[in-house]
Each structure stands twice: as structure tokens, then as C-alpha cells.
Design the sequence.
């Protein structure tokens, strides 16, 4: 299970715990993520990422902007790699249904800045993994039919996390 350190991943962990499911946490190395993993009661697998400094040099020299990247795709592939290496069958994340909808119109097109958390991405990712990597791993979210408010309502049932979670997450 991917642990960003926010309310979504905490609720996924609590759902798994309530169902007596055995699971591991895969996360980054921030202090908040470590505190959340400790509060969940798990020792996580730590994945560190580092951007090549040459990228920043090239951008500076060319005048290019460092734009937003669909970082959830990056996380999906990191979690997939861990699943393959450690023989996991499932990769769980906490993506709720608002990620399925666009939020701004640009040049007549609806733009969804959360597309990489959407159900459409999940299906395409699973199809790609099944066809080109392994049919033995499935990527999904138990929140597909839940709103952000419903996830927050569930999170509110776990006050032990209030002091350790972060509002904006990253692995």
C-alpha cells in the first residue's frame, strides 16, 4: 500500500486493518511519513527519489519552466516495481471519485489536473501492466465511489492520526 502520509492513505490502512488484511507500507523518507507509519503500526519500505541536478541546469539555460508533472503516475510505477520485487498481488492507493472529473476549461477542453488519480488512469495503467509487465498485480483504490467529504468523515474516526498526518502528500 502506498503511504503518502495524508488522510487518504491513513483511511486505506485502517480499512485494511479492520478487515484483518496483512499489508505493507511503501513510502518516502519524510519525517511525517515515518510518524504516520509508526502510528499505523508498520515499518515501511522506504523509497527515495532524487532529481538529476542536470535537469535544473538545462531548464535554467533554456529558460524552460519546471511544470507540474503527473506525479501519481510516477508513484504508480514505483509501487508496481515494489509489488513485482516483493511478490505483492495488489497495490492500493487512496484516490477518490473527484479525480474522475475535470476542474478547469481551457480552449474549449475540460482539463483534469488529477487525471493520474482517476478511474480512467487506473484502468489504462492496469491494462498496460497486464499486457507488458505482469498480469499478477492489480492497482486500485477502495475510494472510487467516495467523495472527498466521505473520506474526511472516515478519517475523523481516527483521532490518533490528527497530530501526525499531512494535508498535502508525496511518496
Sequence:
Amino acid at each position: 500500500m502506498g503511504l503518502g502520509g495524508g488522510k487518504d492513505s491513513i483511511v486505506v490502512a485502517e480499512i485494511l486493518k479492520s478487515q484483518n488484511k496483512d499489508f505493507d507500507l511503501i513510502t518516502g523518507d519524510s519525517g511525517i511519513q515515518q510518524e504516520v507509519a509508526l502510528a499505523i503500526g508498520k515499518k515501511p519500505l522506504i523509497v527515495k527519489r532524487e532529481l538529476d541536478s542536470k535537469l535544473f541546469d538545462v531548464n535554467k539555460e533554456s529558460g524552460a519552466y519546471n511544470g507540474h508533472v503527473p506525479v501519481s503516475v510516477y508513484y504508480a510505477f514505483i509501487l508496481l516495481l515494489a509489488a513485482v520485487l516483493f511478490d505483492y498481488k495488489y497495490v492500493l492507493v487512496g484516490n477518490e471519485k473527484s479525480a474522475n472529473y475535470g476542474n478547469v476549461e481551457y480552449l474549449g477542453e475540460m482539463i483534469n489536473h488529477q487525471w493520474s488519480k482517476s478511474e480512467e488512469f487506473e484502468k489504462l495503467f492496469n491494462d498496460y501492466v497486464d499486457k507488458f509487465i505482469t498480469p499478477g498485480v492489480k492497482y486500485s483504490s477502495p475510494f472510487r465511489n467516495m467523495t472527498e467529504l466521505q473520506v474526511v468523515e472516515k478519517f475523523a474516526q481516527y483521532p490518533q492520526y490528527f497530530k501526525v498526518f499531512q494535508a498535502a502528500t508525496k511518496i
User: Anything to note?
Assistant: The mean pLDDT is 89. The two ends are 11 Å apart (CA to CA). The longest helix spans residues 71-85.
